[in-house]
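Sat 14:20. Reprocessing the chain from the morning session after the first attempt stalled halfway. Input below, unchanged.
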Amino acid sequence: MPPLLLSALALVPIAIVGLFLVGLRWPASRAMPLCYVAVAALALGVWRTPPAQVAAATINGLVITATILLIIFGAILLLETLRESGGLRAMRAGFEGISPDRRVQAIIVAWLFGSFIEGAAGFGTPAAVCVPLLAGLGFPAMAAVVVGMVIQSTPVSFGAVGTPILIGINKGLSGDAAVIAHSGAADPVAWSAYLASVGVKVATLHALAGTFIPLLLAALLTRFFGENRSFREGLAVWRFSLFAGLAMTLPYWLVARFLGPEFPTLAGSATGMFLVVFAAKRGWLVPKPEESWDFPDRGQWPAEWSGSLSLPHDDSSGPVIRPVKAWTPYLLVALLLVATRLPQWPIGTWLKAVSLDIPDLFGSGIAVSVQPLYLPSTVFLLVALFASWWHRVSGEGMKRAWARAGRTTLSASTALVFTVPMVQVFLNTGGGAAGYEKMPIALATGIAGLAGSGWPFVSPFVGGLGAFVAGSNTISNMMFSLFQFGVGQKIGADPDWIVALQAVGGAAGNTICVHNVVAAAATVGLLGREGLVIRRTLVVFVYYAALAGLLGLAIVWS
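Finished this time. Tokens:
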């Protein structure tokens, strides 16, 4: 079959998502079953993938779905526990003490605290933490989801202590003769140095594009959720936004340059939080109180803004909790995630030792593996139980918290139970009787044939496409790094920069990833409006991939 036709067929599932979910605004619970059927039909009918392989990929997807649902449940349970204890009210008052301006609050919670959680855990955890937290602070559910998705760009490439580089690019490139010949990295020490050098290129591109993300976040917030629907109101905080951007991206780049790919996001976000909160408390660069921006009154909110997770903003009843005590559970979440993810500490290894594995499901070569104690959901559940004791939540209060968390999680299952298996089938279509490359590679091959020497511009979009489908920068890098390296050599460009562009695009693709949006929306009861969220975050992905692509063109052809 001609490569362009095969590429067009591989594009069909993505086109279905674009048409029905984003274009026609179907809920994911309706659009994704259709997408799964299309992928399975293509796998069996065109790629002639063995039915056992399709079945194994589907089951693996269901297992991954279960882990995502557990993360959603744990995140909501913690939030509901704090709601019952009065902790949410104290946290809201604490933020209003820093600044009553919602633009400032969004930047601190999402861009800085969310990036810190990304650096520690990755894999969608920042949205599970920040989205319900923002809703609890009085943000409309839709605004909370959009803000939570926008920041999943710059910090992602070094998320989960550098996993997208140290595992994604590493597994994607390692062992290939052309890569070894180019890099001269034939031994483990030299290979680690080579990965670190690619990481510096990734950090350079992210720092240039990511510094403007807080400003873009503020502009989107006021444009879509302000009374005046104005970009100008968001751009009015440009001084604070750029300061917050640089406070994170400058140390982020320095750590990547001098310490390697494990800690740029962790160190950058922690440094940024200290500097930005310190400045905001002293009124530096933030709007004056009379110039603070807020959402319209709740009575004026369109129905599409509100989710089924009701978190009253003006409730003043219930126990009074000191701000430090209120914040303790979320600080504990951050500390436990860091402690269990740092490779230098043995805690994560101990937790991973408890593993449920099927190494070769149905003889397909697909491995199913779950480390239940290592999942972020375990941290959420433990901290929720701690918070119920620490904040003295009554038994009746805990029953209400568990019931609300269970109902919200159950509502998310319909969409995810088709979305994630669809992704797994899409990724596992190689090795079929037709002899074609798996769908993502077939799709990228067709694009490469059209792009030619303009590939550096296209490269981030391909990385983003991988993350959009797979829901993971790590998986996108594993799929496409070697392909991107080969295209770079073929067109005479530095392949290391092409791989870096792949990684940056793969990070930006998380802003529009369907199952990340579904998971984030589920935490605030906003299911059914996933397409509307993607419409609003698509501009962030296009900005990020296009700017990275233009920088790539300038770098590799200069």
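The chain has a mean pLDDT of 91.
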